[in-house]
Amino acid sequence: MKRPKLGTGVTFKMSHLPEIQKGALLVDWFELLADHHLVPSKRLSSALEVIKGTYPLVLHCTGLAIGSSTPLNFDYLARVKRLADELDSPWISDHISWGQVPGAHFHDLLPLPHTKEVAEYVAERAKIVQDYLERPFALENVSVYVEAEESQMSEWEFCSYIVEKSQTFMLLDVNNIYVSAHNTGFDYRDYLKDLPWNQIIEIHLAGHTEKTTDTGKWIVDSHNRPVRKEVWELYKEAWTRAGQPSTLVEHNGIDQTFPDICEEVRKAKELQEESNYAATRLAS
């Protein structure tokens, strides 16, 4: 399967529709959180009709819980697939996480132990999901706050094994890399040493929040702050090494205005231009 390249997009929020309708945006595409829209809505359908002819729409999910011990939820996948077909989503993504046990769904993106056994399990299920959806399926690295004692490999080795074994794709969230590095103690620069670059279909950019508690200083993946300098540096390297994949500025739509978010898009595009210029100079 090919990796579509859409440029730089943002998370779609209904509250931003009036500004989107004005046009002349730097934004190239929108990512839609599928789980909020699996129940048909006339209001959403009308809004998406306004933009889908102009901007590509890509579905991002949080409800699959692919690493859980429960069977894959094909009712959920059928609804996701139906929405993807309606919107002509070029790919669909979810997370390398768990969040279900028999009889309960925690509605959270809980990190998995980084073991080969777990990676094999997730890879097998990811291949099934991609085959069922009949379009590229990508898995995202999540924010980690505490490392599991059972882990036997680094997070990047774990994620790489899954996408390579399953022949699916990776959604690389560079803010999550920084968050996890701070919270669990690895060097965030090490994450980019060995990744399946040809299978990275999308990169997420986002801001985070620092919190100090009795147990120390933590970083929370809140999506409500400007992108940090170190995350921009990670992004520039990852975007270049992955062959310039689609980029998304992820936000929660609460503490940042749409112009604020578009400013982050502008920064991303400037870094892309810098990388292209540097590559051209090296080639000449």
Explain what this protein looks like in three dimensions.
There is one protein chain. The strands form three sheets. The protein has an eight-stranded parallel β-barrel, surrounded by six helices. Strands 5-6 form a two-stranded antiparallel sheet. The longest helix has 26 residues, at 258-283. The chain has a single domain, classed as TIM Barrel (Alpha-Beta Barrel), CATH 3.20.20.150. With 284 residues, it is α/β, with parallel strands linked by helices. The protein is built from eight helices and twelve strands. Helices cover 38% and strands 20% of the residues.
Strand content: 15-25%
Number of domains: 1
First-to-last CA distance: 32 Å
* Low-pLDDT segments: none
Helix content: 25-40%
Mean pLDDT: 92
Overall CATH architecture: Alpha-Beta Barrel
Strand tally: 12
Q: In DSSP terms, counting alpha (H) and pi (I) runs of 4 or more, how many helices?
A: 8
Radius of gyration: 18 Å
**Structural class of the helix and strand makeup?**
alpha/beta
